[in-house]
Fold each of these.
Amino acid sequence: MKRALGVCYYPEHWPQEMWAEDARRMVDAGLSWVRIAEFAWSRMEPEPGRLELDWLDQAIDTLGSAGLKIVFGTPTATPPRWMIDRHPDMLAVDANGTPRKFGSRRHYCFSHKGYQEECARIVEVLARRYGANPHIAAWQTDNEYGCHETVLSYSKAAHEGFRNWCAQQYQSVDALNRAWGNVFWSMELASFEELELPNQTVTEANPAHRMAFRRFASSEVVRFNRLQCRILRQHSRAPLLHNYMGQSTSFDHFECGQDLDIASWDSYPLGFLINRTDYDDDHKKRYLRQGDPDFQAFHHDLYRAVGRGRWWVMEQQPGPVNWAQWNVAPLPGMARLWAWEAFAHGAEVVSYFRWRQAPFAQEQMHAGLLRPDSAAAPALGEAAQVAAELAEMPDAGTAQAKVAIVFDYPSVWAWEVQPQGQDFSGFKLLFDMYRGLRALGQDIDILPPDASDLSAYELVVIPGLFTLSDGLRAALAAYKGYVLHGPRSGVRNKDFCIPAGLGPDLPGVTATLARSESLPPFAPMKLAAPGNFVKWFDHLEADPQQVAEATADGQPALLRAGNVYCLAGWPDPEACQRILKNLLAEAGLEAAEMPEGLRQRSTQSHRFFFNYADGPIEWQGRSIPAAGVYWQSLADDRSGSANA
Ligand code: GAL
């Protein structure tokens, strides 16, 4: 698969006379893909049943004949105004019971049957008309499921769907009562009819109830997406993809990805850095115009797993965005660095968002590759440079990693439902370990929670996995490499109850979880070796022989039985580095302590270095300017063909 660049384009925003010139300039810049149509429903069908698609025929023809391959987005994220008149109850309802209004986008409830039928209808029309069109080289379903917090809806349609889903899962209401422990606070139900959604309760609802609702809501997204996939596949052989978001965990992307051929995600490094509340101001200041050095890579690795090896960046930030708390411009070079980093992690396509900045509406402050007056914005030149460099680079896939981390969406929901300490986040716990491994120079694969073969890895890290699937249990039983579990792994059954033996219920771990504490930021727990536990501490009762590390006051901090390790707490960066470094050494892997801001990733033929720092870095004879990318052939590890 040849790696390539692309761009997101909205022909409906510009007079038709501009299209051909736009297409020519895209091709001149070295772009080969263009995504269109995902928000254009009001122009495709201005009134119910009155289709106007001639303009789309024209746009496709103009872009396609210029040599561009088209990703066609189904427009279901933006139902037109008339749709609300036809289905007034299709709007999603927030946790306070208020319907979310028309006037932006994603104003629909995934469970609404009438809206699902409307989506099936428009997708069928488009798939029939364009399914065999030679210019349509991929389809995107909808746009960013879950964006603007749209997965959880407390509508009537969702309520009905949830009752049916629970009836199917539990078969009898007695089974549900038992599984959830509804005897507590007299919450027992006499029939599924009595089952409510877990919002607007006086105090918190039962965690099992909330967890079931999260699972149901996720399965509604999967079903909604599957409906479109089935129709598209009847009429087109082009691959199907969806554009997921960064740090978006409200539905199970692994499940959704099963129906698609390619995963893609929308990468806005500067917006993500500013909006992440758990980074301190020093970190934000240091990486203000570059983005966090691990955040993009994490998602590249995650979506490579979601796409079962095939993945893209569908939207790449080109300049300031409009939606973060503050919106700064990237350092010169970052629009190039971000693209190269994606390619080093195995992306097939990196597509910038968007071609030309719109002078109107919500995103008028959002940069494009062109300014609103059509002059080139800074990222256009950087995109052209990447395109030229791509032409010179061998087409090697990303390297097989030796280290893996298991990521599980339901575990993120579980710890949102029951954080127990206000800053506990399953995502953040896992991300901290990912960062620790990257700071030690590792290439990492992210694995789904049902991974069945771990044999490619020397080390597998499993933080915060609240319950283990049978598949993973079997894979771990057969696995010969090193495992690091915890904290908070294997501590619940799937219905959110403490297991009979208290847990942690993990292959190879014989300790008992006597009790857990959450730790406020001002009270970290000192370890005997350098570093602290923060946020979380599990009191593990274990054979003293298995205690590999203790807290400063002598409690088990890290257990070891053979190749299996189990952490009792959330290690701060110092402890995390130290523990991971020891483990890498035991597993026979070489750790490279990366300078602050520098990260590396290997393909099968090259090692790439990315300088996220705001100044130049000299490291092991390599000189890499701020926002610079450097690559060298793996065949001759010392002769860096500098490309900074
Ligand atoms: C994405 C979205 C795009 C655009 C972009 C702005 O979340 O898919 O349509 O809104 O953000 O950064």
Note: Residues 143-144, 147, 266, 268, 315, 321, 323, 353, 363, 366 surround beta-D-galactopyranose (CB under 6 Å).
Amino acid sequence: MEKIAVLDSGGQYCHLIARKVRELGVYAEILPVSAAPAKLERFKGIVLSGGPASVFADESPQPDSGLFQLDKPMLGICYGHQLMARYLGGTVERGETHEFGSADLRIRWHADLFAGLAGRQRVWMSHGDRVSELPPGFAALADTLQCGIAAMARPDRGLYGIQFHPEVAHTPNGLRMLCNFLEKVCGCRMDWRPRDRIEQLKRSIREQANGRRVLFFLSGGVDSMVAYTLTVQAVGSESAEAVYVDTGFMRSGETAEIEAAFRAMNLGKLQVVEASKMFLGRLQDVIDPEEKRAVIGKAFVDLQDEILAGERFRGHDWMLGQGTIYPDTIESGGTQSAAVIKTHHNRVERIQELIDEGRVLEPLAEFYKDEVRELGRALGLAPRLLARHPFPGPGLAIRCICNGAAARPEPDAEIAAVAEQWGYRSFLLPLRSVGVQGDSRSYAKLTVLHDGPLDYAGLLPAATAITNAFRRTNRIVAALAPQRLAVEDWRIERASLNAKRVSLLQAADRMVTEFLYREGLYSKVWQCPVVLLPFACAGGETIALRPITSVDGMTAAVAQLPPEALLALARRMRAIDGIDAVVYDISHKPPSTIEWE
Ligand code: XMP
């Protein structure tokens, strides 16, 4: 079988590359970038992934010195492109500014990699360092405004390097470039097809369970439902137990909806556990988002221990089933050297111990959201259930932003100067949220743009320019209602998690979901977190809307919902008692994550 090796330098997108290669019909395997060259002999070609490190950092992942002596076609992506330049005698220099997001690529020479493509391409960039001098024998293929050597090649040896990411959906012709590399440069036949995945998965579930009883926590989301259905079909409902925990951080009406869906599909018995008091009690003083995740994970583990000590499991050997999918493991540092962006609730310490003991079943850990939906369809799950937006396990708890000390908005002259170029006023808020920049986690302040039109042609480039230039902010919002904010009247309040805040968020979230269905927008948006911020002018809070489009949650673009409908929604939301303002998140991922935390 023809195989491609994807060498992992810890990039968030490493597995995505492997998956795209498989989708294109060539089997791909992931190996660490330091893999011994002898191990790579059996591959038709090699892709070097991006990574969170700078090639200048002491501990940055390095290849074996013999890698580039191998007579194999190679494609270096981002960090991989820089490694290729450096090891073959070119120069890499530190960039003064970072380049994140969409860029316009001008192709000077197509060679094989860009065969059949137009001379201008939209590509996705996420880097600081750049290649400044070509290695001997190489030619530059393309540039962007900020990056002189955005692509280079030595076609006689099948060596190609590109600074951008062809594997993400936001490089629209990226798949075509990868296909060119596989077909034209590596000479692959492109005939590998994953057959019978479902039967194979069921066999593997039976083998792993090996007669043990499997306990599943269902969140109501697609992943846990598909994982559970597969498991029931593999081992029978006698050996699989589904528990739904009402943590108090679910969406309004969620419990009833999941119970009904479960009954309709005849999936055995669902146990519903009411635990909202316990969860809220443990979280009431927790401000830090990572700590929140740890507490939630621990609460699930404690419940799990209680259930396992109960009648249904007593005297039986057991294991825990989880609907973990690929991005969940990647963003928690699941690949060899990926940076930890956030700790997924499925990866807290105790779960990690159970994984080490071989007690965790994760049938979907190699799949992406779109593939999980496909599996669900094949298994016969209801279309409405499969079409639901992803909802994180920790639920609304991570969308309810907490804050330890009261503060005021901070005027920022440098950011204001950039915002002004697009016709907006701005200020910085010392309210931090999680982001992902250059493949690493960031936790930085929020920029608010206001007093200008809801016009994406101005807002989106303004947001990209600001996050590219200033590391002190990683997320930008535009004011929807009111559109102009008299800064002196606003402040950030001290805020923790409490029942009142959560029910305010539930009410706002319900209003947004109903709006999306009513306007026919639900299926056009991949996910729409609704977030509560303790930013107030009249004793209330602010709601942030975060509708995005995405293919797999690894990268995301701001969903450009119709401005008039959106403004009308924001005005209605502001009429809810306790909501002082509504803002719209206009940051792509990267640099911001989808959730705020
Ligand atoms: P971020 O915020 O990392 O989110 O851009 C990517 C996708 O993952 C979802 N997400 C989670 N899902 N448990 C889950 O089941 C979690 O702990 C979790 N954290 C993030 C998020 O909603 C988005 O779809």
Note: Residues 194-391 form a domain with the Rossmann fold fold (CATH 3.40.50.620).
